[in-house]
Amino acid sequence: MRISTALAVSAVALLAALPAKADLIADGIDYNLQQATTANPLVDRFTLTITGINGPSDTEGGRSGVNAIAFNTTPNFVSAAMITPPTGYTFDPGGLNSTGCDGSGAFYCFDNTNIPPTPPNPFPANSSLTFVFDVTTSAPGSFNGYDPAFKIDWVGSQNNYDLVSRELAPTTNVPEPASLALFGTGLVALGLVGRLRRRGTNQLPA
Predict the structure, then answer these.
(1) Contact present, 33 and 23 (Cβ < 8 Å)
(2) Which of 3, 13, 28, 169 lies in disulfide reach of 57, CB 3.0 to 4.6 Å?
(3) What CA–CA distance (Å, rounded) separates 6 from 174?
(4) How crowded is residue 168: how many other Cβ atoms within 10 Å of its Cβ?
(5) How far, in Å, CA of 85 to CA of 98, rounded?
(6) Is the domain 20-174 a CATH 1.10.357.140 member?
(7) What residue ranges do the domains of the chain occupy?
(8) Rounded to an integer, what distance in angstroms lies between the CA atom of residue 72 and that of residue 51?
(9) Is 0.90 topped by the overall pTM?
(10) Structural contact between residues 27 and 58, judged by C-beta atoms closer than 8 angstroms
(11) Residue ranges in the chain modelled with pLDDT below 50
């Protein structure tokens, strides 16, 4: 009984630890944000995936680069740092406008120092981009209930792109394959424990 209870608790804890997700579709492009905890209770890792760039649903097209992206700050916000490519993005406090990071408001911004000039070649049709960054707070639990608001400034063949400035709506957590495998292993173990217990109960004494 103790083993089965422990496995059940572990399975629930595994599902609870899955990354929180948020999603936004604007001008035919999908923006998906995943938030996951790290070993440091003051740091959460965010992964922004952008898909459908210059695809059939992209209402503007001709996009060749991202000038800047920004998010609203969490309670007790300290700093944010980009940790993976694309390279060339620096942290700036404040939000952004149509010219890039503007240093104002309760936002933090990642500025693409390679722009200007505007890249001459557009992204291939249906391209995707991924930004991974860590956000640090000064108090544990500061990410509880965090509702991300998002801004992005595109550049390309259009004179001016729509400046996306909207909230990312929460979506249902989707377990990653590794998480599903671990969860499945726990369920199998629960079944084996139950079978062994029933077998022991049904055996006649010698």
Answers:
(1) yes
(2) 28
(3) 23
(4) 19
(5) 23
(6) no
(7) 1-18+175-206, 20-174
(8) 22
(9) no
(10) yes
(11) 2-18, 172-183, 186-190, 192-193, 196, 201-206
